[in-house]
Design goal:
Blueprint (H helix, E strand, L loop, with lengths): L14 E10 L4 E8 L5 E9 L3 E7 L5 E8 L4 E5 L2 E3 L7 H13 L1 E11 L10 E11 L12 E5 L1 H9 L6 H14 L4
Parallel strand pairs: 4-9
Antiparallel strand pairs: 1-2, 2-3, 4-7, 5-6, 5-10, 8-9
């Protein structure tokens, strides 16, 4: 079908004719779907990653500095910088509870939380969401909890230095960069 410049096609969801799990454990499920497009094209298998929803916390102190973490990430095989983040566990009542728990566990901080966005890690392959929280008026109330699978250092850094770290490839986690941009724009400290 030939289309003109301004002709829009009707977009319809794919039909799933069969679905099965090829991997399922407490961290991730990999689902293989047999799909058919609205044009009758069969796609089989189409893999979908089912992970728990995540929370990202952009913590900004009164000086406009951002709390960043440093830790080893096995997928990349490197030590890198991020913002505090984690998964929503089954015992969490909602994303806010998870965000408060994760921030306290990883950094020992609490503060005033506001939800500023929801994004998908990858709408093509992931079924989960990331809930982005801006945390203002942070206060240290505990030491971070010991976790033998995570060694996390954290510190407040001027936002200009964080942007420079991103440009220099020292802050590579793309989802954290997106969360920073969304939260800081909402906080009006992006410039």
């Amino acid at each position: 079908m030939k289309q003109g410049k301004n002709t829009k096609r009707i977009i319809k969801p794919w039909k799933v004719t069969r679905s099965r799990y090829v991997l399922s454990d407490k961290w991730i499920k990999v689902r293989a779907d047999d799909c058919e497009t609205s044009d009758g094209i069969k796609i089989s298998p189409y893999y979908v990653l089912e992970c728990q929803d995540w929370v990202h916390m952009v913590v900004v102190n009164k000086k406009g500095q951002i709390l960043i973490t440093e830790q080893y990430r096995h997928g990349a095989g490197k030590i890198g910088h991020e913002i505090p983040c984690g998964t929503i566990d089954s015992e969490d009542k909602n994303p806010l509870d998870a965000a408060k728990r994760e921030l306290l566990e990883e950094t020992g901080y609490t503060g005033d939380f506001s939800l500023v966005g929801e994004v998908s890690p990858n709408t093509a392959k992931n079924s989960n969401k990331i809930f982005i929280f801006l945390v203002k008026n942070p206060s240290k109330c505990n030491e971070p909890q010991e976790d033998h699978t995570e060694v996390i250092n954290c510190k407040f850094i001027d936002k200009d230095k964080v942007w420079k770290m991103i440009e220099q490839g020292k802050f590579q986690q793309a989802l954290c960069v997106a969360s920073l941009a969304i939260a800081l724009r909402k906080n009006k400290v992006l410039d």
